[in-house]
Amino acid sequence: MEKTKRFLLSEKEIPEQWYNIVPDMKNKPMPILHPGTKQALKPEDLYPIFAEAVADQELNQTDRWIAIPSEVRDQYKHYRATPLVRAYSLEKALDTPAHIYFKNESVSPVGSHKLNSALAQAYYCKQEGLTHITTETGAGQWGTALSYATKAFGLDLTVYMVKISYEQKPYRRSLMQTWGAKVIPSPSNTTKAGQKTLSETPDYQGSLGTAISEAIEVAMQTPNCKYTLGSVLNHVTLHQTIIGLEAEKQMALAGEYPDIVIGCFGGGSNFGGLSFPFLRHTLTEGRKTRFITAEPASCPKLTRGIFQYDFGDEAGYTPLLPMFTLGHTFTPANIHAGGLRYHGAGTIVSQLLKDGLVEAVDIRQLDSFTAGVLFAQTEGIVPAPESAHAIAATINEALKAKEEGTPKTILFNLSGHGLIDMSAYEQYLSGKLQNYALSDEDIAKNTDKLEKII
Amino acid sequence: MEKTKRFLLSEKEIPEQWYNIVPDMKNKPMPILHPGTKQALKPEDLYPIFAEAVADQELNQTDRWIAIPSEVRDQYKHYRATPLVRAYSLEKALDTPAHIYFKNESVSPVGSHKLNSALAQAYYCKQEGLTHITTETGAGQWGTALSYATKAFGLDLTVYMVKISYEQKPYRRSLMQTWGAKVIPSPSNTTKAGQKTLSETPDYQGSLGTAISEAIEVAMQTPNCKYTLGSVLNHVTLHQTIIGLEAEKQMALAGEYPDIVIGCFGGGSNFGGLSFPFLRHTLTEGRKTRFITAEPASCPKLTRGIFQYDFGDEAGYTPLLPMFTLGHTFTPANIHAGGLRYHGAGTIVSQLLKDGLVEAVDIRQLDSFTAGVLFAQTEGIVPAPESAHAIAATINEALKAKEEGTPKTILFNLSGHGLIDMSAYEQYLSGKLQNYALSDEDIAKNTDKLEKII
Q1: Residue A63 reports pLDDT greater than 90
Q2: Sorting pLDDT into bands at 50, 70 and 90, what band is A316?
Q3: Measured between CA atoms, how close is A232 to chain B, in angstroms?
Q4: Phi/psi of residue A369, each to 5°?
């Protein structure tokens, strides 16, 4: 009998609802606090910045299922359902009894899972009567996805792109421009925040913190304009659950259920997107599954950070979030997995880790690329440096299964491809990449600065 | 009722045979000739250079269907069947009554259709007991695909990459290296041909002609090693018919049959791959369908070239091929659609054009990018500069249908994505790209040099 390699769904089988895990959590995430009053935030507090629909979703603790608007679902049809793939060649190379599956989000036209939330957020802004959106982007994955999404829904977009990335990642910048976005290197002279930074440090290469301030400032001052964010927050992960809901149907087609679910970890939306739909069976039916986050060893908030209230951004403009964090002043090493260079974890995953429902492992940069190259040479797809962390963790589990002689079913998320990150592979192949060690003191000096609220 | 956007096939529906159009052609292509004796070539004459199986396929005029080896079909399952997509958003933007479909070959892990033949050629080399393959690559699409394929079948690969591309296209070079290929900038000191060129012109930036000579020289001198080619030849187009055979099934799912089939045109394998399976119904049942090649206006072999015997390579090492050509000494302008910068057309398409079964249009560089950007902004996928030529021709036909008020069904091949060609889009968006005019004298001075055999 022929073995099936890729498990596909028809357009009719694309899920019609996203899954909100919070109603199923015994211990809810602690509230998000206003930094001045320390009072729990209400949706209305977020309305000036975010589309009202996503502000409501952000704090929704009661509705397990949220309908996907048909306009968003129609847009999903451009690339969804994405394939679930059995990694036979990787299994063979590892000589493991484990069955390895991956959800292939790299087939999205922007090359990553980010589009799943970008389309939803652009739609809600449009529905609210807005005409503009602002956002910031570092490596450019989120800005790229939002450029695509705003073009699809007929909105104008201004992206503040961290200046060093603007210069070093011209391909992603050009992608955004091809989809019609205005891309401004940050810091810029177009905002007060940018002007202030430039007057103090004219040669400043930019940071996500500055770019966030610029994007929010413009959103607040422009009529019919709001701001959007591509990770960390609950509504972003909500939109990403389309990944896991599809995967659940596809694993059923394969006649299997995962023993282990793995995702790389930056802010948490790709990990949560794949894992929460499976985690719901653990929460509601006691199904035994391990959920593993794979973070970079150079940015180990889940394995070595502390659980505390902290700001979501470097500059301290956002509300206070209860999360595992390295401190918002922590500056991660300049690894190529730019999407994982974030100091904190989303509030839901933080609570789940605290409650022992989720595990965390860290992966060193060189190990992530070794895994990425093995994956490219077996399964054929060059993974994004971020996704390579999930692959490294998968390989570790598959080798453990071999050692123990236990056949395990492992599912991981291939969150994106690495075709626009080939310079990183070039550096790895020519021996120019390194690992970054981080001492306990390095971590403590940032976390010690946090106000002790919990 | 929900409209279907993407028409998918299950793995079981991936075709089990390629289609050889020659048995159905009333006028067969004229024979390929030995350049010295002017005698028709036999398969054995090609054995020293090409795998025997593909040499046999090259000259096969009798077998309409060629079985796809199950090992190749298993490899196809990594990305096939590729989707057939209805371009609703593009139709809407054009306000056309035409139904526009495209076959999306960009979803292959190497980003283009080239992999369809690379896998087949690598397999046949492996089956013959070879351990090495050589090839040349210009822009890098073919080299990339063959790197993937040789890794899949456990062969060593040496790619001679035109030096200027080696330096200007580091992403494609790194892709090849990630899949384990040895990539050498050509001209190089590793061959006599390269040494000769370098001794005459030390700063020479390389050409496809020199790279071919180097790759063939190494193949001839290395035990268990042969040479492969990624376009122009009949066996390459044969392997690419998987595209059209799938599309035929998918158009049936959509309940339509194309009035017009369009492909961009370099050597002919992507155009032939999509169109020949449909053309067979024209040849055998008299079905009325138009088949349109879209070539760059700066390399107009089909619209302005002559039909004559000519060499396949710049240097004149290959056998003589009966084809539409601009002369093998013609140097195309440096357009970004590197895969279309070839002086001649494959022998089958040349015969079909001569017989009026195929039409040819030319597309100017700026028009191709205008079409590419419109496609990116409507259908979401940034097309390869090559594929943008097919899109431009499609838009022209869709607008004609609008003018005439006739609903036409148009099918084109999206042969690849442009994610690794974003610098070209950047140049277009910033107004730095140009068209290249070509006078009749420019063409005549190369074609006049050809020996008049026909």
Answers
A1: yes
A2: confident
A3: 26
A4: -75, -35
For chain B, list residues whose CB is within 8 angstroms of any CB belonging to chain A.
Answer: 2, 4-6, 8, 10-12, 74, 77-79, 89, 107, 109, 111, 148, 151-152, 170-175, 177-180, 373, 376-377, 379-382, 419-420, 422-423, 425-426, 429
Encode pLDDT of A248-264 as tens digits. 999 999 999 999 999 99
pLDDT at residue B276 tops 90: yes
**What is the rounded (10 degree) CA torsion for A139, A143, A145, A147?**
-150
pLDDT tens-place string over residues B120-134: 999 999 999 999 999
Confidence tier at A1 by pLDDT (50, 70, 90): low
The whole-model pTM stands at 0.96
Apex A263 CA angle, B151 and A291, nearest 5: 125
Instruction: Flag if B423 and A174 touch (Cβ within 8 Å).
Output: yes
The partner residue sitting opposite A175, judged by closest CB among B74, B175, B382, is B382
Of B178, B132, B139, B127, residue with least CA distance to B157: B132
Q: How far is A373 from chain B (nearest CA, A)?
A: 6
Residue A132 is given by DSSP the state E
Residue B1 has pLDDT above 60, yes or no: no
pLDDT over 90 (residue A179): yes
User: Structural domains in chain A?
Assistant: 6-13+67-111+235-447 (3.40.50.1100)
